[in-house]
Amino acid sequence: MSEWIIGVITDWSYLGLFFLMLLENVFPPIPSELIMPFAGYAAANGELSTLGVMLAGTLGSLAGTSAWYAAARMLGLKRFTWLCNKLGRIATITEHDIDMAVRWFEKYGPAAVFIGRLIPAIRTLISVPAGLAAMPLYRFLAITTFGTLLWNGILLGAGFLLHENYEAVEGWVDPVSTAVVVIGVLVYIYRFATWKPIKDIG
After folding, report:
1. What range(s) does the VTT domain occupy (predicted)?
2. pTM over 0.90
3. N or C: which terminal CB in the chain sees fewer CB atoms within 10 Å?
4. pLDDT tens for residues 11-23?
5. Range of the domain at 139
6. Which of 89, 83, 68, 88 is nearest to 25 (CA)?
């Protein structure tokens, strides 16, 4: 699995990284916890530039999370709920997920957008209450960019550590990364199978 991720990034360069991070933020087939470290590994290997990796990864994340923000802001609560009932099974978005993100936003306000970008469970969905609350776009993008840069920077640094110690860890890097993806797929299948239509929230 690790070779496949590195292959996508190196074969498609920054465009591949951009789309992987975009998809991860729309519905996570592969977590950024795997994508960015392997992009960092490629950068440390001299195949990509560190700045290019940060830009492509961050822009991909922004594109994905901004899609949720735009949908929530343009549609409003009722129509967004309707959209989730049409596409929610595919994205495995549940009423609990939205409620949790809304409560988080109500509790912490704009800071929730920054903090949320560092928490895998709500990293994508925190965009929804920000959009529903009509948070100014410039503020949403600024805070999201800052949080995303911090998160991606941490993961990119992990990729450099992976490169420096590859001989010591190569025996378990691929099994661990494969296990992460397998677990993610199993969770997705479970959430897909147990998904229920979302009632009107709020």
Report:
1. 30-159
2. no
3. C
4. 899 999 999 999 8
5. 2-194
6. 68
Report the C-alpha gap between 75 and 45 in whole angstroms: 44
Contacts 24+ apart (CB under 8 A), 138-145: 139/110, 140/66, 140/69, 140/113, 141/62, 141/66, 143/110, 143/113, 143/114, 144/62, 144/65, 144/66, 144/113, 144/114, 144/117, 145/58, 145/62
Residue 150 CA to residue 117 CA, distance in Å, equals: 9
Determine whether 74 is exposed, middle or buried from the number of CB atoms within 10 Å of its CB (0-12, 13-18, 19+).
exposed
Whether 59 is covered by a domain: the verdict is: yes
User: What average pLDDT does this structure show over 107-113?
Assistant: 84
At position 99, the amino acid (one-letter code) is: D
Residue 202 lies in a domain: no
CB 21, CB 61: distance < 8 Å: yes
Here the contacts of 21-25 (C-beta below 8 Å, separation 24 or greater) are 21/56, 21/57, 21/58, 21/59, 21/60, 21/61, 21/64, 22/60, 22/61, 22/63, 22/64, 23/64, 24/60, 24/61, 24/64, 25/60, 25/61, 25/63, 25/64, 25/65, 25/67, 25/68, 25/123, 25/124
Of 43, 18, 58, nearest to 153 (Cα)? 58
- Is residue 199 in a domain? no
Query: Which structure tokens are listed for 162?
Result: 């992976």
Place of tokens 């099994």: 175
Query: Could you give the number of structural domains in the chain?
Result: 1
